[in-house]
Design brief:
heterodimer, A: alpha/beta, Aspartate Aminotransferase, domain 1, about 10% strand, B: alpha/beta, Aspartate Aminotransferase, domain 2, 2 domains, seven-stranded mixed beta sheet, four-stranded antiparallel beta sheet
Chain lengths: ~475, ~450
C-alpha cells in the first residue's frame, strides 16, 4: 500500500483543541441566549471535531495523497478533457477584486467583473458561432436544462406544443435526464454500428411532435458526424431545433463551429475545454449559447453594454428565468477568460490540432492489441473495446484497475454504452508524446498480461491506498455518515 | 505558434504523424465536410504574454468595490465570513483540485473521504440523517427539493413563504416549469411567514411547504409550527437554512424538517461575485433513495480495510438516464471540501462562537443604525445576523454615497419586494468590529441627512 493512513477528521478529535482564531466580542451584549428567544437556539453543541490547525493541514495533505489528479498522473478520462489547469488562472480568480466581490454589488461598483463576463460571453459566442451566450448555468447539465427550456419556450411562443426530444443511444446520461426534467418525453435514437447517426431512422422519427434533437459533436466515439449539416437541415425542415452537447468542444476550436453546422443551441463546459479545474467533481461552469431566434429566452439577467457601461438586464419578459441565485460560477469565468486571453485564436486552434494528434497517436499505437471501436482518424478521443480481453476473462474494469497500479488514472469505462467493454481515452493536448508512449506501453503490457498472467490484472490494484471496494455492500447497507462508536 | 500549455514540438508532431501514417494534421480532419470548416481564424483578441495578461486582468479586478477595499455589510444570500487560511492552501493541492469525480474509488480515496466527512458534518448541523455531496448553490438545492417533494408525494403544488429568498424562488420556478408544478405564495407582512395564512393554503395538493430561517429579511421563523402545518396536510417540510448559523440556531431537522437545503458559502467559500457557491442538501433517511446528487458511503476493500465509494448510484443520470432523480452530474466538490476544512477548523466551539459573535454584532449594529435620525428597523421580529432598515432616502442612493466612504452598506430591497422599496438589508458577520459599526452609523447619518 502506498499510504496506510486511515483516519477521518473526527477520529483525530481531542476535546479542547482549537484550530480557529476569533477575537473576543467588542460589543456590549454578546450572549446569543439573551439576544434570541430560547426556542430558536440549538440545544446540544454540534458534534464537530476539535483539532489543531496543524492536525488539519496534515490530515488533508494526507488525504490529498490518496488521490490521483492531473497534476500527479496522466488522467485519460474520456469525455472529461482532463487537461493541465494553468496556475495563472488560479492567481487571477483569487484577486480580491474578484474573489471578495459581493454578488449584489451595485453595477457601478462591479464594472470590471461585468466587463469580464461580457467579453467572455462574446468570445464564447465567436468560438461556437452563436449569437448570444448566457454564463449562468453552473455545469454542463444545467446548461442542457437551460437550452432545452429555451427551446420549449420558443416552440410555445409560436403556439406549437411539441412533446418529444430525440437523443441518440450514445449520449451522455445528462442529455436524457435534463430533457426529461424539462418536461419532454425522451425518444432514444439508435446509432449505426459505427456510432454515427442513422440518418434514415432519424428522418422517420422527425415530425411535428418533436421539439428538438440533441447530439454530441464529435460524438461519444470520438468521431466527427460526417452528415451533420444535412442532419441539422433535415431537423429544421420539420421545425425541430438542434442542440449540441458541447462536452467535446476541445476537438473543434477554430476548425468548425456549432453555429455554422446549423445548431440552434450548444453548451460549453468551461471545466473541460477552457481549463477550469475539475475540483474532484466540480465546481464546473456550463454557459449556453444560442442563435438569435432563441435570444429572447435566455436566462436573466443578461449582461449588456451601453457605451463603456456594463449592466444587468432583467427586463426580458420571454426569459426562461433563473438557474442559479446569482450570475454564474464567476470564479470559473475568470479562469476561462484568462485562458482564452492566454491562448488567442491561433493558440486555441493549436489546442484542438494537438488534442486530435494525441488521440490518433494513442489509437494507432493500441490498434493491434485492442479492438478499435471505429476506424480512424478520430478527433480528440478514441474508444477501444476490451472484447478480445474479455474472452480471456479480463474486463474493461480489470484493465482500469491494472492501469492504476501502473501509474495512470483510468479511461472512462463502459461508455459509450453502445460499445462492448468500452475504454474511452482522451489524452488532451497538454500531454507530451513520452507520456502517451508510457501509457500505450502500459496498455499493451496489460493486453499481454491478459494472455499470459491474468491473475496480476485481477489482483489489481495493489499499489493504491485501498484495493477493490465492495460496492454491493455500500449500496445494500448504506453508511453515509460517521458516527462515534459507543 | 508556441504555447506553454501544449507540449508537442513541431518535430514531435512530425514523428507522431509518421507513426499514425498521416502526412499532416490536416489529414486527420478528413471526416469534417469542407463546407463545415471555418475558413478564417477565430475573431478573438490575440494571445497575451503572462505579464501583460496579469496587468489587464488585475486592472479589471481593481474596478470592483470588494470586501477588502470596503467594509462589507452586504448579505442577502452571500456573506463576508471568516475564512481560515489553511482552506485555500489545502484546496490548492493539485491532488484535490485537478482530480475529477471519483469514478475509480481506489485512486480517489482523498476526495471520497473528504466528502464522507462533509456529509457527516452537514447532517450533524442540520439535524438530518443524511446529506448529499452537494448541489450547485442554495437556490438549485431548493429547486431540487421541490422536485423531490413532488416525486415523493406525487402532488403538484409547492407552497413557499414570501420571506424565502426571492432569487431561490425564481430558480425553483424554472425547475418546476417542466413538471408543471404550481408555486403558491404565503405572505410575510411582518417579516415572518404568516402561518395562519399558510394553514389555509397548504392542503391535499401540497407537496411541500417551504420556509427559510433566518429568512430573507434576517428574521427567525417558527419552523416547528410550520412543520406541523405541512405534516397535518401530508406535505413535506422543506427548510432553507444557512449552515454557518447552526452552531447557535437549532438544526431544522430537530424541529420537524424533512428536507433541509441552503447556501453553504458562509463555510469558507469566497463570495466571488456569487459563484461558485455550495448547495447544501440533507434529508431524512427514508427519503434517501429519492435524493438528487451524489452520495459517498463507507464500505470495505478485498482485504477488509475501510474504504469509500460513490453509492446508491442507481438514482443518478449516468445509470438511470431519463428516469434519474435529477440531471445533476458535476456538483461543487471543491467548495464542499472548503466547507469541510472550515467546519473542521472551527470545530464545535468555533462555530458556536461565529454565530454568537455575528448575532451580537448584528444586534449592536441594529441598535446603533436604528438610532440614526430618520432610520428605523423595518420589522420587530427576532432576527439573527441580518435586518432590514427603513431609510428616509432612496436606498440605492445611500448605497452609492456610502461606497464613496468605504462602506458596502447593504442590499436595497426594492427589486425583491416593491413594498420594501425604502428598505436596505444589512448583514453583520463576526468579522465586523465595533469601530467599523460605529463609523458606519456616523456615515449613514450623513448619507441620509
Amino acid at each position: 500500500m502506498a499510504d496506510a493512513y486511515d483516519k477521518l477528521i473526527f477520529e483525530l478529535s481531542s476535546p479542547g483543541r482549537v484550530a480557529w482564531s476569533l477575537a473576543e466580542a467588542d460589543v456590549p451584549e454578546a450572549d446569543a441566549r439573551t439576544l434570541l428567544p430560547e426556542k430558536y437556539l440549538r440545544r446540544a453543541a454540534p458534534e464537530l471535531p476539535e483539532v489543531s490547525e496543524f492536525d488539519i493541514v496534515r490530515h488533508y495533505s494526507r488525504l490529498s495523497r490518496m488521490n490521483y489528479g492531473v497534476d500527479t498522473h496522466f488522467y485519460p478520462l474520456g469525455s472529461c478533457t482532463m487537461k493541465y489547469n494553468p496556475r495563472l488562472n488560479e492567481d487571477m480568480a483569487r484577486l480580491a477584486g474578484f474573489a471578495r466581490l459581493h454578488p449584489h454589488a451595485a453595477e457601478a461598483l462591479a464594472q470590471g467583473a461585468l466587463q469580464l463576463m461580457h467579453e467572455l460571453a462574446r468570445d464564447l459566442a465567436e468560438i461556437a458561432g452563436m449569437d448570444a451566450v448566457s454564463l449562468q448555468p453552473a455545469a454542463g447539465a444545467q446548461g442542457e436544462l437551460a437550452g432545452v427550456l429555451m427551446i420549449r419556450a420558443y416552440h410555445l411562443s409560436r403556439g406549437e406544443k411539441r412533446t418529444k426530444v430525440l437523443v441518440p443511444d450514445s449520449a451522455h446520461g445528462t442529455n436524457p435526464a435534463s430533457t426529461a426534467l424539462a418536461g419532454y418525453e425522451v425518444v432514444e435514437v439508435k446509432s449505426l454500428p459505427n456510432g454515427e447517426v442513422d440518418v434514415d431512422a432519424l428522418a422517420r422519427t422527425l415530425g411535428p411532435d418533436v421539439a428538438a434533437f440533441m447530439i454530441t459533436v464529435p460524438n461519444t466515439l470520438g468521431m466527427f458526424e460526417p452528415r451533420i449539416v444535412e442532419i441539422t437541415e433535415m431537423c429544421h425542415a420539420t421545425g425541430v431545433q438542434v442542440y449540441m452537447d458541447g462536452a467535446n468542444l476541445n476537438a473543434i476550436l477554430g476548425i468548425t463551429r456549432p453555429g455554422d453546422l446549423g445548431f440552434d443551441v450548444c453548451h460549453f463546459n468551461l471545466h473541460k475545454t477552457f481549463t477550469t479545474p475539475h475540483g474532484g467533481g466540480g465546481p464546473g461552469s456550463g454557459p449556453v449559447g444560442v442563435k438569435a431566434h432563441l435570444e429572447p429566452f435566455l436566462p436573466v439577467p443578461v449582461i449588456t453594454k451601453d457605451g463603456d457601461a456594463y449592466a444587468l438586464d432583467w427586463k426580458r419578459p420571454k426569459s426562461i428565468g433563473k438557474l442559479q441565485a446569482f450570475w454564474g460560477n464567476f470564479g470559473m469565468l475568470v479562469r476561462a477568460y484568462t485562458y482564452i486571453r492566454t491562448m488567442g485564436p491561433e493558440g486555441l486552434r493549436s489546442v484542438s490540432d494537438n488534442a486530435i494528434l494525441n488521440a490518433n497517436y494513442i489509437m494507432k499505437r493500441l490498434e493491434k492489441d485492442y479492438d478499435v471501436a471505429v476506424p480512424g482518424p478520430c478527433m480528440h478521443e478514441c474508444v477501444v473495446s476490451a472484447r478480445r480481453q474479455k474472452k480471456l476473462g479480463v474486463t474493461a474494469t480489470d484493465i482500469a484497475k491494472r492501469l492504476l497500479d501502473l501509474g495512470f488514472y483510468a479511461p472512462s469505462t463502459y461508455f459509450p454504452m453502445i460499445v462492448e467493454e468500452a475504454l474511452m481515452i482522451e489524452p488532451t493536448e497538454t500531454e507530451a508524446k513520452e507520456t502517451l508512449d508510457q501509457f500505450c506501453d502500459a496498455m499493451i503490457q496489460i493486453a499481454r498480461e491478459a494472455e499470459t498472467n491474468p491473475a496480476v490484472i485481477h489482483e489489481a490494484p495493489v499499489t493504491t491506498p485501498v484495493r477493490r471496494l465492495d460496492q454491493t455492500r455500500a449500496a445494500r447497507e448504506p453508511n453515509l455518515r460517521w458516527t462515534r462508536r459507543a | 505558434m508556441v504555447s506553454r500549455y501544449i507540449a508537442n514540438t513541431p518535430d514531435e508532431q512530425k514523428r507522431m504523424l509518421g507513426v499514425i501514417g498521416a502526412a499532416s494534421l490536416e489529414e486527420l480532419l478528413v471526416k469534417i465536410p469542407a463546407k463545415a470548416r471555418l475558413a478564417r481564424p477565430l475573431g478573438l483578441t490575440p494571445a497575451l504574454a503572462e505579464t501583460d495578461l496579469i496587468r489587464h486582468v488585475t486592472a479589471l479586478a481593481a474596478r470592483n468595490a470588494d470586501a477588502d477595499s470596503h467594509v462589507c455589510f452586504m448579505g442577502a444570500g452571500s456573506y463576508d465570513h471568516y475564512v481560515p487560511s489553511p482552506i485555500n492552501h489545502m484546496i490548492s493541492r493539485g491532488e484535490f483540485f485537478t482530480a475529477y469525480t471519483p469514478y475509480q474509488p481506489e485512486a480517489s480515496q482523498g476526495t471520497l473521504r473528504s466528502i464522507y466527512e462533509y456529509q457527516t458534518m452537514i447532517a450533524e448541523l442540520t439535524g438530518m440523517d443524511v446529506a448529499n455531496a452537494s448541489i450547485y448553490d442554495g437556490a438549485s438545492s431548493l429547486a431540487e427539493a421541490a422536485l423531490m417533494a413532488h416525486a415523493v408525494t406525487e402532488r403538484g403544488e409547492i407552497v413557499l413563504s414570501r420571506a424565502v429568498n426571492p432569487l431561490y424562488k425564481r430558480v425553483t420556478a424554472t425547475y418546476c416549469e417542466g413538471p408543471s408544478l404550481r408555486l403558491r405564495d404565503v405572505g410575510a407582512p411582518d417579516g415572518v411567514t404568516d402561518l395562519a395564512a399558510a394553514k389555509k393554503v397548504v392542503g391535499p395538493k401540497t407537496a411541500a411547504l417551504v420556509v427559510q430561517t433566518p429568512n430573507f429579511y434576517g428574521c427567525l421563523e417558527d419552523v416547528a409550527a410550520a412543520a406541523e402545518i405541512a405534516h397535518a396536510a401530508g406535505a413535506l417540510m422543506v427548510v432553507v437554512a444557512d449552515p454557518v448559523n447552526l452552531g447557535v440556531l437549532e438544526g431544522p431537522g430537530k424541529l420537524g424538517a424533512d428536507i433541509v437545503v441552503g447556501e453553504g458559502q458562509g463555510l469558507g467559500v469566497p463570495m466571488s461575485f456569487g459563484g461558485p457557491n455550495l448547495g447544501v442538501f440533507a434529508a431524512k433517511n427514508e427519503l434517501v433513495r429519492r435524493m438528487p446528487g451524489r452520495l459517498v458511503g463507507a464500505t470495505v476493500d478485498r482485504d477488509g480495510r475501510r474504504g469509500f465509494v460513490l453509492t446508491l448510484q442507481t438514482r443518478e443520470q449516468h445509470i438511470r438516464r431519463a428516469k434519474a432523480t435529477s440531471n445533476i452530474c458535476t456538483n461543487v466538490a471543491l467548495c464542499a471540501l472548503m466547507a469541510t476544512i472550515y467546519l473542521a477548523t472551527l470545530g464545535r466551539d468555533g462555530l458556536v462562537r461565529v454565530g454568537a459573535l455575528s448575532t451580537a454584532k448584528a444586534h449592536y449594529a441594529a441598535q446603533r443604525l436604528g438610532a440614526v435620525p430618520g432610520v428605523s428597523l423595518r420589522f420587530a421580529a427576532p432576527f439573527f445576523k441580518e435586518f432590514a432598515l427603513k431609510l428616509p432616502k432612496p436606498p440605492e442612493r445611500v448605497v452609492s454615497r456610502l461606497a464613496k466612504q468605504g462602506f458596502l452598506a447593504g442590499v436595497p430591497l426594492k427589486t425583491f419586494e416593491r413594498s420594501l422599496a425604502d428598505c436596505l438589508l444589512v448583514a453583520v458577520t463576526e468579522k465586523r468590529t465595533k469601530t467599523e459599526i460605529d463609523a458606519f452609523a456616523v456615515a449613514l447619518e450623513k448619507a441620509v441627512a
